[in-house]
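Schema walk-through. Below, the input block comes first and the output block second. Nothing else is stored per chain. Lengths vary across the set, and this one has 478 residues.
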Amino acid sequence: MFNVNYKELTLSFNEFHDVSAKDMPQYGEYCLLELKTGAYTAGGWYPSGEGRSAAGHFLRGTADTVDSEEVARWHSLDRYDLSEILKDEEINWINLGPEEEGNRNVQFDGFKSLADGKKPKEEQFCLLIMKDGSLAAGRWNKWRRQAGGTFIYSSALASHSSEKVWAWTPLSSDDIFAAEVERENEKKREKKLNKNPSTDPELFKYGTDINVYYEKALEKLREEFYWATLPMMKKEKPLWQIAPLHGKLVFGQISKNYYDDSDVVTPWTEGTTADEFIDFLVRYTHDKVEHSNPEEKFKFGTDINVYLEKAFNNVKKDYRWLDRKMLGKTWQYDIRKVDGDLEFVRKCWNEREFSVYDVESAERFIESVEYDYQSEALQANKTVATYAPSFGHISLHGWNLERYVFHKLKSGDYKVSVTAGDRVTGGSREFFITPYCFEAKTYEEFLDRYLEIVPDYSFGLGKKELLPDKDLQEFLGY
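--- output ---
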């Protein structure tokens, strides 16, 4: 790497251009900026309109710009390659641009290295010396769930990888950095306040164990639902906890801050006493407990095969080629005790552990298995012919219809696949065309039944488009 001691290095920028003279950089050129306030930052130049207008902005990141009216002078960062000079271990001062009498310059020193574990503060905008000898700048964003970070310098999170940065030094503070500093200070104040939180005796008259409050709510629920249990109640997420907030204990729900994984406490605000909170817990968990009646949920017993057999027979009525050998390749099912309660559980073929499949009734569980069996049946029935009706531009609730294809299957049955999307994302769905549709005597009657499965208002093509299509009519056997 370079031989210069970055800790003793000073970069002196001498050749600035005045914005007042409408002396502006090339489109997209990345520049060190001296603001009219005397602060220093950096950004890529994007003029307004055509040509080299002095009106425009310097782009620093997504929704992060500096208007040209805020800028006094600029100095290009794109023009330099310092790789050779940085190999000279005697160097500790580098002039960038000719040092002439009467020219105001600015020096930056105090460089640090990420390799030494020295990282900028979050959202701090920095001047960078890259490992290829070029100069750059960017706003530091640490990675949220692993060590390291990146320097954002343009829109769409365009960034300089920390692995490509040799040394960095901070530029001036700005509103974004100041807001981050205040957020960090607030976290420190909150942490200090929460070291010894106070306790409202009216709110926590039964103590500070949340399970005590759940158990008291359970006693009330059992007056209506004799089968109620704590595990049933706690299926209603998110759970309520007792946590410190602003120096006081509160009943709250805890989530994770996306940016730094810190806890975010959302307090309960519907009352001021312990008994009011218990009554609230009863209401909060009421529906979950009501729909967890084991007599309804396991009305056909606790042998999982009974439920799977019912699902198989129901699917077999329409998916006539279905064979038991086709099943179990995607999902496995069971009935097991979880936290003392019987539960339907399932796991995908590539998962090691079963997870609770929370359904309120035996019928709902059977329906969900039917859906899985239908998908496996369609995957096992190969396509032997396809027909794609023609269509123009069709907008579906903000998405555009991209693909609409009928498939004739090896068994002689049919399905249709539909794909829609926008410029960023998309999705596809398959629909089995049930034998009931083909019991229709005419093509028009067939469409009436088919469009109940794949309605035009949801998937783009309706009777108006499909009825005149003679090739589709023939493809479907009419």
